[in-house]
Amino acid sequence: MAVRDSGYLLFGLVVLFHTWGALAVEVNMEDRVEVFIDDMAQLTCKFTSEEGIGGMMIQWFYMTPAGEKQKIYYQDSTMKVVDRGTPFTDRISVNGTGAEGEVVLTIRDVQQRDEVEFICLVKSLTDGIAEGRTKLKVFALPDSPTIEGVQTGISINEASPPKIGICEVKNGFPRPNITWYKNNTPLHNIPGEVRLVPSTTSESSGLYSVTSELYMKLVKEDKDNYFYCEVTYFVPGAKMMVETNRINVTVLYPSTAVKVWVESPKGEIKEGDTVEIHCSGNGNTAAEIKITHRDNETSTEDGVLVMKSVTRAHSGVYFCSSMDLYTYEEVSGNTTVFVNFLDDAVVEPERIMEVAQGEEVKATCNALSSLQTHTTWLKNGKEVSKGHILTLEATFDTAGTYVCVVSVPEIEGMTTSETLRINVQGPPEILEPVSTEIEESFDSTVDLSCDVRGFPAPTIVWSTSDGKILPTTSQEETDEGVHSVVSVRVTSDMIAFCNASNVYGTDAMAFSIKAIKADTAIPAKTVPKEGKGVIIAVIIICILLLAVLGSVLYFLYKKGKICGRSGKQDLTKEKSNKDNIVVEMKSDNTEEAVLLGVNGEKLPPSDQ
Ligand SMILES: *[C@@H]1O[C@H](CO)[C@@H](O)[C@H](O)[C@H]1NC(C)=O
Ligand SMILES: *[C@@H]1O[C@H](CO)[C@@H](O)[C@H](O)[C@H]1NC(C)=O
Ligand SMILES: *[C@@H]1O[C@H](CO)[C@@H](O)[C@H](O)[C@H]1NC(C)=O
Ligand SMILES: *[C@@H]1O[C@H](CO)[C@@H](O)[C@H](O)[C@H]1NC(C)=O
Ligand SMILES: *[C@@H]1O[C@H](CO)[C@@H](O)[C@H](O)[C@H]1NC(C)=O
Ligand SMILES: *[C@@H]1O[C@H](CO)[C@@H](O)[C@H](O)[C@H]1NC(C)=O
């Protein structure tokens, strides 16, 4: 109670003192002034006093880092003095006399070390002494911040958080702050997960350079994430923020699963194909990839196994294992390969059958395959039967070579074939030739051919009607029997026999050849070469003779020694010589007569 009372008493005294004229000096200053380095700072000192300016004294001080008050300026009504030897000596000036109740301390070229407290002290002869203080705050805009990510891949399996990158901002004041972001989330220290390592360097200029390293455990998804730094710094009257570029890091993650597949061929595989099996993990770290099939292990560098000319033995399950070379963890997968096959076709009962005429023939054709097959029988390139069984009645028409083709419709180019030869036993049968009546010019050569069906292959003998054997020119076995050719020189009309025989019987065919004379043999087709030459020569001689004859006639006509039936009148009128009589006499005769007349001009008319 006593303490409170004495307090009130003291307050009352002070109020009285002020009110009654004995007023003290008052100084007013801003708490702080903020400027950029290199700019100019102006510190205003306002004061009030009853005293006129004549009795006033103004002094400026600053507080040294050691906490001492250091005078830099003095002024009174008579003089203004800048103290020598202080850091401000050359850079300060004070304007105003103080008459308006304020003076301004101007500091040019502000430095970082100018960030101190300034004191304005005002002393009045009558009102006493008072001081005010202003803190000068200086600022430097930092350089653009930089970011650098770790260039090598970063494994997600590191024991402790690996380094992700470093951010740096240089020459800021006051000290800028760096904050790391992953995508849009700021990062903070989390033991064992995220570690931020900041460091600050004080440059000789007094400015700060700041770096921040980020260490962080990554997960696979971080491959798609980005990182950046945000830098905050103060400027006079504000707080600013600037961001770095975004960076990506290469995240290394081992496979957690592998995929194995047949890359080629697409679709069904058949024996002989080149098969390519691919295996790839879902990771991106170095791994050893092995592909195994029935204890047959193949290490591959790129997870590709190429097998050329596969057989059905290559069918089965293919395992692929991928072992990470860093963690030694292994993952595996498998795929099943099936190699389709089509064995050679087999014809039963046998490939060459001998059957009696009229007998029923039944043959089968089969090829073992992993897939459905389709069988057709062909004869002379034409399909004659579908399905694997061939049934037919043995005749000379059905005898011959059959091809059975077995194919797998599902796979193009998968096909096999086998032949079946059916020989139908029976006596020879000579096929009727185009013509057996042949006309040939004398001394020419004619080819006679004989097509014989029958099995066993008949023996062919060519002969003439007088029993002479003709040597066979050529002979070949055909599907159905034998084809035999003989060349005959035509010397006279003749008959040639083709006699065919085998164990079952005989057959014969007669060819009648008529020899015709070369002269009369005008038809070019059958005229032998020598004959043609003779004819051409004869024709040329005839033409020459006619030409000579023509010339002679023309010559005689010009001489007027001849007259045709048409020119008779003119000639008689023009010519009046004695020849006229001869001509007149001939005029009744035929052309031949005239010609004879001309030829035998001097003959007497009685001779004709
Ligand atoms: C002091 O000087 C500065 C420029 O030198 C001027 O802008 C300012 O108005 C002056 N102040 C007074 C009180 O004279
Ligand atoms: C980072 O990488 C991902 C995937 O490659 C990409 O989509 C994204 O745009 C990248 N981000 C940056 C900042 O480069
Ligand atoms: C920097 O961080 C410190 C501590 O969190 C804080 O006091 C200061 O104001 C920050 N500076 C900037 C420029 O954000
Ligand atoms: C076993 O591997 C070898 C080499 O890759 C290969 O040539 C062979 O065909 C394989 N055998 C089987 C049955 O897979
Ligand atoms: C093959 O892989 C499948 C999964 O793709 C799995 O279910 C199966 O057990 C594997 N087979 C063998 C024999 O390992
Ligand atoms: C060929 O057949 C004919 C007609 O049957 C016969 O006259 C002739 O003697 C036979 N020739 C031979 C060499 O057998």
Any overview of this molecule?
The protein has 5 helices and 45 strands. It is elongated, with a radius of gyration of 67 Å. The chain folds into 6 domains: 23-139, Immunoglobulins (Immunoglobulin-like); 146-251, Immunoglobulin-like (Sandwich); 254-340, Immunoglobulin-like, CATH 2.60.40; 346-427, Immunoglobulin-like (Sandwich), CATH 2.60.40; 431-516, Immunoglobulins (Immunoglobulin-like, Sandwich); 563-608, no CATH class. The longest helix has 30 residues, at 529-558. A hairpin with a 7-residue loop joins strand 36 and strand 37 (415-430). By secondary structure, the chain is mainly beta. Strands 31, 33, 34, 36, 37, 39, 42 and 43 form an 8-stranded mixed sheet that branches. Strands 2-10-9-4-5-6 form a 6-stranded mixed sheet, with no helix packed on it. The protein has a 5-stranded mixed sheet with strand order 38-45-44-40-41, with no helix packed on it. The termini are far apart. Helices cover 12% and strands 47% of the residues. The chain binds 2-acetamido-2-deoxy-beta-D-glucopyranose (6 copies). One 2-acetamido-2-deoxy-beta-D-glucopyranose binds next to strand 28.
